[in-house]
Amino acid sequence: MADILIKNGYILTMDPDTGDLKKGEVAIENGRIIYVGLSYNGKADKIIDASGSVVMPGLVNTHNHAGMTLLRGYADDLPLAEWLEDYIWPVEAKLGPEEIYAGVRLACLEMIKSGTTTFADMYIHEQAAARAVEDCGMRAALSYGMIDFGDPERAESSLLKGRNFVKDFNGAANGRISVMYGPHAPHTCSQQFLQDVREQARKDDVKVHIHVLETEAELNQMKEKYGKCSVNMLHDIGFFDSDVLAAHCIWLSEGDMDILAETGVHVSHDPVSNMKTAAGIAPVPQLLEKGVNVSLSTDGCASNNNLDMFGVMKTAALLHKVNSMDLTVIDARKVLEMATVNGAKALGIEAGMIKEGYYGDLIVVDMKRPHLTPLYDVDSHLVYSARGSDVTTVLVDGKVLMENGQVLCMDEYEIMVEASKAAKKTDSQHLIDVLGLNDPSADQ
Ligand SMILES: C[C@H]1O[C@@H](n2cnc3c(N)ncnc32)[C@H](O)[C@@H]1O
Ligand SMILES: [Zn+2]
């Protein structure tokens, strides 16, 4: 007997072996998909009616700083280095685990409501992030953001934090949490530190999540310091392998792309963040052409400014079309693959497809909406016209986290209240009390 049977939906399996089903059924038991096909020959505890909807794999957001929801809109429209160094980093120092817990809860709420079932994270107080993920039921690959700035003491304490996190949370929350090592970037970490982290990750058999060549300033700094770019430096120290997830990868030469392809590095593409921070345009069509696994991500909320992967999908498609002045350079199916199959592959999880044996991580998207009518091509609608708010039902690990627009795994209002309170720790003079928390009349 299945736990859940989803009926009457258009099943976008993303599985090349089975293809999509115009009207099919998906059965889930013990957190895994046990049937995908036209009609399930068994009973189920719970039936989900997906009439007029698309049932598809949950979206996988492969680069986030989830706790940064607290800094959404905090310091916008500033040059990237100034934004990070003068605004974001000083204010992050004021945030403790309780604030980050509240921020990550808000991030999870936002992600669930817009169809993301798994995210990869790199941030501070990551234990608190793990607790938030555990509590809400999502799946995540978490890493402690480690920076040494060439200071051996900082290197030691950072690595220790990273190691403890890996030790304590690998496989936590019934396997929904996986861990990674998160050395921040080649220009904020010393070469020695990057080598030490690399070695530790191999020892622990844990993946590595890092920012690579997000800005031209990084490229110039690296050339000055090492006489070569970040990709070459990392390659020369043996850092690259198929367990590395590199975010951004904008300022790549042809040779850099070949290195990423040969070593099997996964690239996380953040088009919205990259456009907002004017960081540049990653050569995604070329990377895909060379066989690099490219997935999609929002980046942190302070550079996006939301966590809606539907917005990211549309932006990715449009950006590369106009950049190459060739609209055939990337199509809707490819974008959907990047947001599902490729993301799951980068994180090494059995998700991203509706396939027997894979995790019961899937979403239901309501197509009975004005902006999705009429319907000729499901892929096209999902990428070019749908929004996160069209997602009605979300399952992770075979558990229903949202059903018919109702979030079941947390109290939405409470999450917003707690995050708003946590945001006060920034001491910003500009914080506006939208929930009316400081207004006694709002209690009635
Ligand atoms: C893990 C660390 O990464 C920082 N961080 C957040 N967004 C970016 C970005 N676009 N580029 C580089 N670092 C970033 C966070 O502020 C945190 O300090
Ligand atoms: Zn980032």
From TrEMBL:
Pathway: Amino-acid biosynthesis; S-adenosyl-L-methionine biosynthesis. It comes from the Archaea. Transmembrane segments: none annotated. It catalyses: 5'-deoxyadenosine + H2O + H(+) = 5'-deoxyinosine + NH4(+); adenosine + H2O + H(+) = inosine + NH4(+); S-methyl-5'-thioadenosine + H2O + H(+) = S-methyl-5'-thioinosine + NH4(+); S-adenosyl-L-homocysteine + H2O + H(+) = S-inosyl-L-homocysteine + NH4(+). One of its GO terms (biological process) is S-adenosylmethionine biosynthetic process. Homotetramer. Catalyzes the deamination of three SAM-derived enzymatic products, namely 5'-deoxyadenosine, S-adenosyl-L-homocysteine, and 5'-methylthioadenosine, to produce the inosine analogs. Can also deaminate adenosine. The preferred substrate for this enzyme is 5'-deoxyadenosine, but all these substrates are efficiently deaminated. Likely functions in a S-adenosyl-L-methionine (SAM) recycling pathway from S-adenosyl-L-homocysteine (SAH) produced from SAM-dependent methylation reactions. Belongs to the metallo-dependent hydrolases superfamily. MTA/SAH deaminase family. NCBIfam families: PRK06038.1 (NF004701). This is 5'-deoxyadenosine deaminase. It comes from Methanohalophilus halophilus.
